[in-house]
Write a structure and sequence with these properties.
Strand order of the largest sheet: 3-2-1-4-5-8
Helix content: 25-40%
Largest sheet: 6 strands, parallel
Structural class: alpha/beta
Shape: elongated
Radius of gyration: 26 Å
Strand content: 5-15%
Length: 398
């Protein structure tokens, strides 16, 4: 029996997108088999193309979020460029945009307008703060939304709040847009109608703040910033080892503490000492608890420390940097790395985390050059070579 096709095979997505939130959402759709047509500005394209040159001369953000797409470069302020997008949308199943607030509506590319004209279309508006309310028109970059959503207030050390090291607000919005598209497509399969999907970065990240948010608004106190430590569990932190590494361990209950004391620390007395025998006592005496654990692990190499913790059944992890993640033995053993094409040659990329056994592997297409597919897409839309040449000459297409 032949393997199942990719679930979005045969669907077409048109995206007027930039930065991370919308591009990361549509990349998920491309990986699952959808054809994604990325509409970019003619003067440089998606501005994420210019963030850096770390990926062999390409921007790392762009490489991450835009594989498997076709790029068409158009000036949407020119009626002829806008007409091309409308022609592409007429044949599409999904439209996604994350333009500045109000810009899509002025162009007639907002979800409500497009879905009224195309009842089977699923159209997604991604914004910073939503279409209404006092913050609707505020600029909404990832770090700003991390601050507004309270993420920064619970991340960092007691003396210093810090932003997350990844664009958490962008990623949250992207993944809700992705799942919103899938849900709307399922509904279209039963009703025949698509419809608008709206996702805001603030609302997406506020949902991700679930535990500290609910802990606080239902009568608790806001969790303290504790670095790598846990606010209400001890020991739960990263500790230096003798060879310069760091090992994070987590003791979830008192039985585990006794095993740690007996089998790793060679201090069985600590398992019953009232100052450490319960989690409440260990949290109260966190400084002394951490000092005891640090003394033990500081005398061991990283590999030996991890081996002893594993043998004792203590949850633990090596504190890795990004180069070590790139060489992670688990990712290698599960064969998660592939190569994707790009204008600068092959680049390493991870398979998407959604695995569909028994079916085709995720389609990890090339990272497109700006306007790489403009001519082909315009010809497919019915334009002659002369019309295309005119658009290029007038700076409407590139």
């Amino acid at each position: 029996m032949d393997g199942l096709p990719l679930p979005l095979e045969g669907l077409t997505v048109v995206a007027v997108e930039q930065a991370v939130a919308a591009p990361f959402a549509t990349r998920q759709l491309a990986d699952l088999g959808a054809r994604v047509i990325k509409v970019e500005r003619i003067d440089g394209g998606d501005f994420a193309r210019g963030y850096d040159t770390a990926a062999g001369g390409l921007a790392s953000h762009f490489v991450w979020c835009n594989r498997g797409k076709e790029s068409i470069a158009l000036d949407l302020k020119d009626p002829r460029g806008l007409a091309v997008v409308r022609r592409l949308v007429a044949d599409a199943d999904v439209f996604v945009q994350n333009l500045a607030q109000g810009a899509a509506a002025r162009l007639g590319l907002d979800a409500a307008t497009l879905c009224a004209a195309h009842p089977r279309l699923v159209a997604v508006d991604i914004s910073g703060y939503g279409s209404g309310g006092p913050y609707a028109d505020k600029r909404a970059y990832d770090m700003l939304v991390q601050c507004e959503a309270g993420l920064v207030s619970v991340t960092g050390t007691p003396g210093q709040p810090v932003k997350a090291g990844i664009p958490a607000a962008d990623i949250a919005a992207a993944m809700y847009a992705f799942s919103g598209v899938l849900a709307a497509l399922v509904r279209r399969g039963t009703t025949g109608r698509g419809g608008p999907v709206e996702v805001s970065m603030l609302e997406a990240l506020a949902e991700w703040m679930g535990h500290p948010l609910h802990h606080t608004i239902h009568g608790g106190t806001p969790p303290e910033r504790t670095g790598l430590a846990h606010a209400v569990i001890a020991p739960y932190d990263a500790y230096p080892t003798a060879d310069g590494g760091r090992v994070l361990l987590s003791v979830q209950n008192d039985r585990e503490w006794r095993r740690l004391a007996e089998q790793v620390m060679d201090r069985p007395d600590l398992g019953t000492d009232p100052a450490y025998a319960t989690n409440a006592a260990r949290v109260t005496n966190r400084g002394r608890t951490d000092a005891l654990v640090a003394k033990t692990l500081g005398a061991l190499g990283t590999d030996e420390a991890l081996a002893r913790l594993e043998s004792a059944g203590i949850a633990c992890a090596r504190l890795r940097d990004l180069r070590e993640l790139g060489d992670h033995p688990q990712l290698a053993a599960r064969e998660r790395w592939r190569e994707v094409g790009s204008p600068v040659g092959p680049l390493r990329a991870l398979l998407p985390p959604i695995t569909l056994p028994g079916g085709s592997e995720a389609r990890m297409g090339d990272v497109p050059a700006l306007g790489e597919h403009t001519g082909a897409l315009l010809r497919a839309a019915g334009m002659t070579d002369e019309e295309i040449a005119a658009l290029r000459r007038d700076g409407v297409a590139a």
